[in-house]
Design goal:
Blueprint: H1 13-56, H2 61-76, H3 86-104, H4 111-128
């Protein structure tokens, strides 16, 4: 792919946008894994304490209430997870995929469309830096 003007010929946009898509997808998966881990840990702690309290009765009521609080703490820790990041990352994936598709069919584009696509890609790269 040869570029003219201010765009150096060494830039290959397709792998760059593939990598950005990969990074965004991994971040979304990571957010989801942490959320599931917190829920599972919290529910496990709650389940174990409830089973223990029914089996051991009044002997450990004070400990059960403290451990139950810890289980609730893990579940409430979900509020600290940046789940609000998932939607913007999905929209970035769409943007990067469209740019990548544009560069995959770059030779078929008119010179005006090529310039517009390069400018859009450069602007996207600048926002990432």
């Amino acid at each position: 792919m040869s570029f003219s003007g201010t765009h150096p010929p060494s830039i290959d946009y397709v792998p760059y946008f593939e990598r950005l898509i990969f990074i965004q997808e991994k971040a979304i998966i990571s957010f989801k894994r942490w959320a599931v881990a917190f829920v599972l840990i919290g529910l496990s702690v709650l389940g174990v304490t409830l089973l223990s309290s029914t089996m051991l009765g009044a002997k450990i009521q004070g400990i059960v209430s403290q451990v139950t609080g810890m289980g609730g703490l893990f579940i409430s820790a979900l509020a600290a997870l940046p789940y609000r990041e998932i939607a913007p990352r999905r929209s970035r994936i769409i943007t990067y995929a469209l740019l990548k598709q544009g560069f995959e069919r770059f030779p078929d584009l008119s010179e005006e469309d090529r310039k517009r696509l390069r400018d859009l890609a450069d602007e996207t790269i600048k926002r990432q830096i």
